[in-house]
């Protein structure tokens, strides 16, 4: 059972506002997620037409200095006052005309209820929780699209300009505050407790509770990870739309409710196909109504599609979508609405929607496990481009296309293909751009199955040759068994490439004569490379040192000049484009780590990673006369084959020694994870890039909740599931938790897996 009960506003006398002060009051902590800078910026735009208005900010925090500087930079020192905290906020509400809530996120928004209790209406960002539960758009306040300061400024200016509207909304706010009175909220709690108490011994309830507990333990191994549905940035459906959704839900067994809206259940849809499905939905509706449109192109090569339509045809577009998808769970998110609250509307209900800057068309999909949803973020935008006579063209309503913010026409004169379908576009969009990547990109993995008896025999024989015990020992630097442990991560890492990087040409899997039993080795996009194909000297084999194996990757036959190197515990977390890793001029990118390389020369007692980093530092200091200080993130490594060859020629002796080192050695250098990037930076073939990267140590209980956060937010471009040498989580439990998490994050089977999908 899930029930939502709001916070209550304390009883007691509260002075009422007359709303005549022409003062906007914002009580907020000055911290990043409260986004008070948005309120200042928006006020700066609105006050131009209303110079007698003031903005008063109550609160302090680490951004106080920055907010004061912003006020000065915008020339608002005469109209914006940063007052600091106050213990008399009820008195300040009595002096307010309205308030603004520009937060990035809100749990509830009690400050809005306090404002309403004084008869003060509000303007707020429509974030997923909080404001929309309190503000009735157009009744006691205005909701605008999150993070849109232009829309925020327009809403503020609307209340500043219309005194009658301000007073009408203020009166409605005072009435609306009664919904949150202590008496009403207390009765709700009492009713809930009474109902729960009455059913506490009900056999059906006890059975269901036991079943849930058993299921939870089965999928989480009893740890801190909890399977979670993805978070949504769209407010749940309500009112008439919710009622209509219930009708559709009752009549279609393929529909379920997720994140407050309907979704179709599918377990076979990779991300790229979800984007294409929604592009097709939008295009089909426009073409059926003979509405001309242009498929735009973006400079960042994003898979998100945008269609440009003459703004004069906006009503026709809304009608076309309503005709095309009656009785279907197809939504249109309102982009930049002028009068309506932000949110997603069923396509069939678009006839009642007012002016917007665009519509994001989406048919939501959800996997049967409920952990992967393709929502509006995967939708196709239909943008309404108004004609500007002064510019002699159509102007971007939200953000520019690859050719800039203005188009000469939105009537197509060319076609372009997306997968197997042609779409109308402009000739200029078909021209090669300076930012285009016109070269192939491959991916390389190194992989080992530590449970293979033959591999264990080879390892122990090699160790015996070196006078070491016949079993990896944790005290041997860099040679702990954790380095060889296989938990089937490769299956899910490959799924992540198929899901989020369909532009990869060929995947090379480098192994010591091994292959996973579930792997579809005959797949044309996959090649298995044996160690013997990489070494000229058979005496160097067998080798169990990742530094050594990595030093030979550029010898892979037919490998592209540009490629990504991934460990099997690297995963793509969301769609990424190749220009995240390479520039169109051929340069590779790298991602600095905040972790500094310890001072001093490498010693036998150093951890393997740091020993190799120190050795790299010494080589670079001797060659370039500079000292490197930091390493790189645990993320896919963008590499160039020619640069690797140059490095092995220039530093022939240390690289040759590393390639002959059968086990990790403190004298190794790390070629692909470090030396390549530093060398490329110093020779002009590599440059810093940016990537959202996550890291979870699966051997620590305190980090397991980070898996839940990764799954719910899906906000990282890449992430790594690592394990330190000293683990507190038993190996079996780690494997169960990781399997549960990875199956939840990547539930769509990849093209590189056999039909059974089960390891032998």
UniProtKB/TrEMBL annotation:
Domain Stealth protein CR3 conserved region intervals: 634-681
Answer yes or no on keyword Ribosomal protein: no
Compositional bias (Low complexity) spans?
227-238
Q: Which UniProt keywords apply?
A: Exopolysaccharide synthesis, Transferase
Q: What Pfam families would the database entry show?
A: Glycos_transf_1, Stealth_CR1, Stealth_CR2, Stealth_CR3, Stealth_CR4
Where is the Glycosyl transferase family domain positioned along the sequence?
A: 19-173
Q: List, in alphabetical order, the Gene Ontology terms for molecular function in this entry.
A: glycosyltransferase activity; transferase activity, transferring phosphorus-containing groups
Question: Does the record carry Transferase as a key word?
Answer: yes
Residues that span the membrane, as ranges? none
The residue ranges of the Stealth protein CR1 conserved region domain are: 439-466
Q: Where is this region: Disordered?
A: 220-243
What InterPro entries does the annotation carry?
Glyco_trans_1, Stealth, Stealth_CR1, Stealth_CR2, Stealth_CR3, Stealth_CR4
At the top level, the lineage of the source is Bacteria
Give GO terms for biological process.
polysaccharide biosynthetic process
Stealth protein CR2 conserved region domain: residues covered = 483-589
Stealth protein CR4 conserved region domain boundaries: 709-757
Assigned protein family:
Belongs to the stealth family.
**Which protein are we looking at?**
Glycosyltransferase
């Amino acid at each position: 059972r899930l029930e939502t009960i709001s916070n209550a506003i304390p009883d007691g006398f509260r002075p009422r506002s007359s709303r005549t002060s022409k003062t906007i009051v914002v009580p907020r902590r000055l911290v990043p997620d409260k986004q008070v800078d948005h309120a200042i910026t928006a006020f700066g735009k609105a006050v131009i037409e209303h110079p007698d208005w003031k903005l008063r900010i109550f609160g302090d925090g680490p951004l106080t200095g920055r907010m004061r500087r912003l006020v000065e930079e915008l020339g608002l020192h005469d109209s914006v006052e940063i007052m600091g905290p106050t213990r008399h906020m009820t008195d300040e509400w009595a002096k307010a005309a309205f308030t603004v809530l520009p937060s990035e996120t809100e749990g509830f928004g009690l400050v809005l209820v306090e404002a309403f209790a004084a008869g003060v209406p509000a303007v707020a960002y429509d974030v997923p929780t909080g404001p929309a539960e309190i503000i009735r758009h157009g009744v006691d306040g205005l909701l605008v699209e999150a993070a849109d300061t232009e829309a925020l400024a327009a809403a503020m200016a609307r209340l500043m300009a219309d005194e009658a509207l301000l007073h009408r909304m203020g009166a409605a706010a005072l009435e609306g505050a009664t919904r949150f009175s202590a008496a009403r909220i207390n009765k709700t709690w009492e009713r809930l407790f009474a109902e729960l108490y009455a059913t506490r011994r009900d056999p059906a309830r006890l059975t269901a509770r036991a079943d849930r507990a058993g299921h939870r333990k089965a999928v989480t191994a009893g740890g801190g990870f909890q399977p979670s549905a993805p978070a949504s940035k769209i407010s749940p459906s309500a009112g008439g739309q919710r009622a209509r959704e219930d009708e559709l839900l009752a009549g279609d067994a393929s529909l379920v409710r997720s994140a407050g809206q309907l979704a179709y259940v599918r377990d076979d849809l990779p991300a790229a196909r979800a984007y294409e499905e929604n592009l097709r939905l939008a295009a089909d509706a426009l073409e059926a109504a003979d509405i001309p449109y242009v498929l735009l192109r973006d400079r960042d090569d994003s898979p998100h599609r945008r269609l440009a339509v003459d703004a004069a045809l906006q009503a026709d577009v809304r009608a076309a979508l309503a005709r095309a998808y009656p009785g279907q769970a197809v939504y249109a998110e309102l982009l930049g609405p002028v009068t309506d609250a932000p949110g997603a509307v069923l396509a069939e209900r678009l006839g009642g929607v007012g002016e917007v800057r665009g519509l994001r068309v989406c048919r939501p999909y959800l996997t049967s496990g409920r952990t992967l949803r393709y929502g509006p973020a995967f939708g196709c935008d239909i943008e309404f481009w108004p004609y500007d006579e002064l510019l002699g063209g159509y102007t971007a309503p939200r953000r520019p296309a690859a050719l800039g913010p203005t188009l000469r026409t939105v009537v197509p004169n060319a076609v372009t293909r997306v997968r197997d379908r042609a779409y109308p576009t402009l000739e200029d969009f078909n021209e090669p751009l300076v930012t285009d990547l016109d070269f192939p990109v491959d991916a390389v993995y190194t992989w080992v199955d530590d449970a293979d008896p033959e591999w264990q025999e080879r390892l122990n024989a090699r160790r015996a040759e070196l006078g070491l015990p016949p079993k990896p020992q944790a005290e041997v630097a860099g040679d702990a068994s954790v380095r060889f442990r296989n938990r089937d991560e490769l299956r899910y890492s490959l799924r992540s490439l198929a899901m989020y990087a369909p532009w990869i040409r060929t995947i090379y899997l480098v192994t010591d004569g091994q292959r996973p039993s579930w792997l579809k080795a005959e797949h044309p996009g996959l090649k298995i490379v044996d160690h013997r194909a990489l070494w000229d000297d058979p005496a160097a084999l067998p080798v169990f040192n990742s530094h050594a194996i990595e030093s030979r990757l550029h010898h892979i036959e037919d490998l592209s000049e540009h490629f990504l190197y991934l460990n099997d515990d690297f995963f793509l977390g969301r769609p990424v484009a190749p220009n995240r890793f390479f520039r169109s001029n051929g340069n590779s990118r790298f991602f600095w780590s905040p972790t500094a390389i310890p001072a001093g020369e490498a010693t036998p007692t150093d951890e393997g990673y740091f020993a190799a980093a120190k050795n790299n530092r010494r080589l670079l200091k001797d060659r370039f006369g500079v000292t490197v200080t930091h390493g790189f993130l645990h993320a896919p490594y963008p590499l160039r084959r020619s640069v690797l060859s140059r490095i092995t020629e220039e530093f022939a002796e240390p690289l040759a020694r590393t390639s002959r080192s059968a086990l990790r050695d403190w004298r190794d250098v790390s070629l692909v994870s470090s030396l390549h990037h530093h060398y490329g930076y110093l020779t002009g073939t590599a440059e810093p890039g940016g990537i959202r990267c996550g890291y979870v140590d699966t051997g620590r209980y305190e980090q397991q909740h980070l898996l839940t956060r990764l799954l719910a937010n899906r906000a990282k471009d890449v992430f790594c599931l690592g394990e330190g040498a000293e683990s507190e989580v038993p190996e079996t439990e780690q494997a169960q938790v990781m399997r549960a998490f990875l199956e939840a994050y990547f539930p769509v089977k990849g093209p590189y897996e056999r039909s059974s999908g089960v390891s032998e």
